[in-house]
Write a structure and sequence with these properties.
The chain has 156 residues and is mainly α. Helices cover 72% and strands 0% of the residues. Helix 2 runs parallel beside helix 4, helix 3 (60-83) runs parallel beside helix 6 (121-155) and helix 5 (105-115) packs antiparallel against helix 6.
């Protein structure tokens, strides 16, 4: 491997601070992301098995998974950026790994495509818009609720 060629296009190897981004601890971070992602995907799979989606019907399991995952991302981000002095591996494990593996916007896209058939096109649009709106509102609700609850605890 030629060390003059960047490994990551966002890292300039001629800048020492950016070169340090490629340090050994990246392997550890990737490992906790992979572990969290696997566990999150297992949790999503379990939910999908308990609540299967039938062709031509609203995909409730995926909808709930994505909305719940977004709510939890809102909670997590407030906790690790405003409340706790979190360990450096918490956010990669829980945020990128577990919640990244738990939420499934690729399945959302596939299920939307499956609903784009005569008789369910309207449902497809409800699913697309409903998921986007609900996921964004869930993230905001998670952030707001966590800020409110943690401020009340700190002030008492």
């Amino acid at each position: 491997m030629d060390l003059e060629e960047p490994v990551d296009p966002d890292v300039d190897l001629h800048v020492p601070a950016q070169r340090r981004e490629l340090a050994w601890h990246h392997g550890l971070i990737l490992g906790v992301i992979a572990l969290g992602g696997g566990l999150g995907a297992l949790a999503r799979y379990g939910l999908a098995q308990l609540w299967p989606t039938h062709p031509g019907r609203f995909p409730w399991a995926t909808f709930v998974t994505n909305v719940l995952g977004c709510l939890l991302i809102g909670v997590l981000m407030v906790l690790v950026t405003e409340v706790w002095a979190a360990h450096p591996l918490v956010r990669p494990f829980l945020g990128v790994g577990f919640l990244g593996g738990f939420t499934t916007f690729s399945t959302y896209a596939v299920e939307t495509r499956g609903l784009l058939t005569p008789g369910t096109i309207g449902l497809a649009f409800v699913y697309v818009a409903g998921t986007l709106v609900a996921a964004l509102l869930a993230t905001l609700a998670g952030v707001q609720a966590t800020r409110t609850l943690t401020r009340e605890r700190v002030s008492t």
